[in-house]
Each structure stands twice: as C-alpha cells, then as structure tokens.
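Box S2. Input/output pair 1.
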Amino acid sequence: MSDTRIAIVNQPWDGSLPPKQTSLAIWSYQVARCLSQSCDVIVYGRECGRGRKV
C-alpha cells in the first residue's frame, strides 16, 4: 500500500453507501473504490451503518 492518504468529505445530508445516495455520494463512493487500489482512502459522511468497510 502507498503512503498516499486521501480523504473525501460528503455533504452532511447524503448517505455515503448504496442504495440511498445522491449523485455526489455515488461519485464519492466510486472514486474512493478506484483510488483504494493504490492508496489509503477514507470517506466522511452521514452515518449509514457502523464502520462498514467498502
């Protein structure tokens, strides 16, 4: 894993995980999944569960 760390901050009213997302939350989710192949990524947003790893 790389030393690169990235944080993505969602809008506070958006759920961060499927199936209840807006277009920006979908973008954040998909970008985080792609970036996680090469660096550490954390997504901040409204709680939609308890620490579910994506």
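Box S3. Input/output pair 2.
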Amino acid sequence: MTTRADPSEVAGDATDAAKAAPTPEATGAAGRRTGRIRPMPWWCNMTLRHRLLILLLSTTAVVLAFQGFFSTRVLSNQLAEVHDQEMRFAAESIRQLLDGQPDVRARASSGVPPVVDPGAQMVATLLEPDGGRTELISQRGFHPELPSYAEALRLADSGEVRTSADSALTRQYRVVALRLRSSPEVLVVTDPDSLRGTARTVVPLNVAFTGAGLLLLGVATVVVVRRELRPLETMARQAEAVASGDLGRRVELSRIGSEVGQLGVALNRSWEAVQAALQARDASERRLRRFVADASHELRTPLQSIRGYTDLYRHGALPDTAAVDRAVERIAGETRRMSRLVEQLLLLARYDSEQLPERVPVDLGVLVRESAADAAAVQPDRPFEVEVADGVQVRGDPDALSRLVANLLANVRQHTPVEAGCWVRLRGEGGTAVLTVTDAGPGVPPDALPHIFDRFYRADPARSRASGGTGLGLAIVDTVARAHGGEAVVDSRPGEGTTVTVRLPRARRTDVAVLGLPAPGKTERVEEAHLAEARGAT
C-alpha cells in the first residue's frame, strides 16, 4: 500500500531542516572562533631595541619633515612679501619720476634706448591705450610676456602683485602695475621670482641636515638603548638559570629607583619566595620520610615481639596459665612502649613542622622541683641534689618544657647505676635561664658525643632497650630547646660523668608581672634529705 505524505508536513520538515542548517555567516563565525590563531604582525616579533629605534627615528623624521616643509613655506612667503614691497617701491619711484619729469617719457617715446642696468633684475614698461609699449628699463636675457592694457588696468586698480610665467612655463616672474597721474599710460614692472627660488634652495639643506640628524640620533639611540637594556638581558640570563634549577641566582641591583631596578627587586623577591617555598617543601618531605623511617624502624621490634607471643598462643605453645600471663604481660609492655614511642614521634613531628602551641610564661623552677620529686620517687636509692633559683621564668609550652626536664632525669636513670649521684641546678644568667643536669655515671664515649642528640641513637643499644629507652629522650630535649629559641649541649668524659646544659631565653618582665609570678630572688638549695618525703611516698 502506498502512503502519500501530507504537503503541510513536508513543508514543515523542510522549514525545520532549513532552520537547522547553518548559515554561511554562522559557519564563517564558527570557523573564525575555532580556526587557528592568526600570526602576529612582523613588527611584534622584533626586539624592543629595534622597535624603539624605528619608532624614534620615524617619529623624528616625520616631525623634521613637517618642520622643514612649513619653515620653507613661511620663508618663501616672507621673502615674497619683501620682494613685492621692493617692487611696489621701485614702481612708485619710477611713476613719480615719469610724472615729475615729462622729458623722460618724451625721450623714451622718441626712440631713446631704454636704460639697461646689468645688475638690475626688473623690467619697466609703459603700456599705452592703443597697444603701444615703451621700455624704460630692460634686462639682458629677460623678456617677459606683458599683460594687455586692459589687464594692466585691472591689475593696477587691484593693487596686487601677480605671478606670471612665460609661454613655455620655464620661468616665473612677478608683475605689478600702476596708473600714471599725468597720462593714461600704465606702468608695468616685472621682476624674476628669484627670491622664491632662494627659498627653494633651503630644501636640500633641510634634507641634508635632517638626514645627518637622523643618523646621529640613530647612533645615539642604539648606544643608549643598548646600555639601558643591558640589565634586562642580564635578568633574562638569570631567569633562565633559575628556570634550570639554580635558585641561588640573584640580580645585581645598581639603580633601584629606576624601572629596571624595580623589576630586579621584584624578580629577586619572587625568586626568594620560590626558593623558600621549595625549601619548605623539601624540608616537609624530609620530615615525612624521616618520620616514616623512624616509626617503621622502631616499631618493628615491639611488633615482632607481640606477633611472636600471639603466634605462640595461637599454636598452643604456651603450656600453662603462668606462661600465658607472662606472654600477656610482655605484650602489654611492648604496647606501652609503642604508645610512648608514638607519642614521642608525634611530638617531634609537631615541632619539626613548627606547629607550636601558644606560648605562655612558665615558672621553670616549679617544673624542675616537680620533675626532681618524680625522679626521686622512681629511684629512692639514688642521691639527688637540686638547686633552684627563684623567679626563673621562660615563655613557652608548659607540657613540652616539663617533658624536657623529665627526659633529662630519665636519661640519668636509664644510663647510670642507681648509686651514681645526680645534681640538678637552675639559675638565671641575664636574659637566659640555664638548667644543668649532672650525673656521676660512666660518661659517654668520645665517638658518641657528636650523635648524642640524634634520633634513635644509643651509645649502648642493648642496655637502652633493656631499660625501656626509645632513643628519643635527648632528641626531644634538643628539639624542644631549639623550638623555644634555646640550645642544649653535652659535656662528658668517660669515667667522670655527664653534664647536659639547656639554655632558654627568659620571659620579659611584663609577661611575669601579668601572671603575678614571683620576681627573681635567692637560690633555694634542696638537699638529699629534702627529697625523703618523695622517696617515702614511693
């Protein structure tokens, strides 16, 4: 069966197709939007030196050309005005002579030869109404075409000076006409337009001087621009070196007040910022790698111990309840050790990233007394001697400073026998708080002293692990001291004991007064007997 389409539907489809089809204008616009970028004009690819030179020379040439053109026109007009005045004066003098001395006209009319002046330029002629002409003054080689009597009358009535030319248009001359008062003749005076030619001779001179000036200007511009742009070329080389990885390059600044000097200052600041950012990134990456390496290294041993005991328990290798209890106790001990280790690592990571808590004035003497009492409670048999000066305040994190003092005393406890004495002293030296912890232990070997503040460093690894040490105690002391603007140093000799000295900047008096802390006073000496209460509590 054949189906016929509705004409209205066919027309509608055609209309829709026509609407959907892109028009040439739309296609062209889309082509322009999606087409390739047109190349830049040739002058945009030129160097700044060449563009400045071309711009300056072209601008100067145009200005000089206009100046030469208008100056020549002005000079020509002024010379023509002077020439015309001279012609009018000469014509008036001749007319007065003719009107006052009729014999002159009579002699000229009777055929007397005209006056010939070899040095004169003008020609004087009398025009009569009947067309006759009488030459009064002539010039060799100059025979101008004179106007008719009627034209001379009109020129005389107008009082103008007219420019005329010969039939060949090879020579121009000026024409002035005057009526005689005593007769109907008209005096016509003509003169070659030599002064305008004189003005035109200035044109080659202008061209020559303009060319010489442009040449000198071009040479001077090249020299000056090259000298002024030399710092920019140096900056470009420095920028290429920085882009190649040499971040220590800087621009030498000679004229900071100039635009080039300001650009150099901006480049140096930007390069310093980039270098600081890259250094901060590298330091952050080093801290992260160090933290991961330290954590993986130190957590490996307790994790292996915990895994070993759990494997023994899972395989039934623990024969009785007592063995299970010992295994659980060992697992708990290793867990506590890992907790301490993680806390210490987090503390070091926080200080490495400079995420410091808000600092407040802290009475360091109170922290020293409390830590000494805690140490005496842990080891009642160890001789302690504490000397604390009153009013030694610092500004910092109380928890971190308390950990610093506790780690110093824990280092004595872990690395010296119990019978070795310990002396703790706190004093103020001007604007510095000085804390020293001295023990009578075996001392530190000389080869171990340079590494005493390294993380996880142990002069005697077996003994340190057996005593529960993590190798981070003195590293935390050094990190906390530096974070508070101070330092920690160690002095030790084998067989003579070890002294650790921590120096911290003291708090300002205004901070102390705000918190109402005691002012600096005398030193309080706490002997071994005064720690008996702490030992008895143990």
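Caption for Box S3: The mean pLDDT is 76. Residues 259-314 form the longest helix (56 residues).
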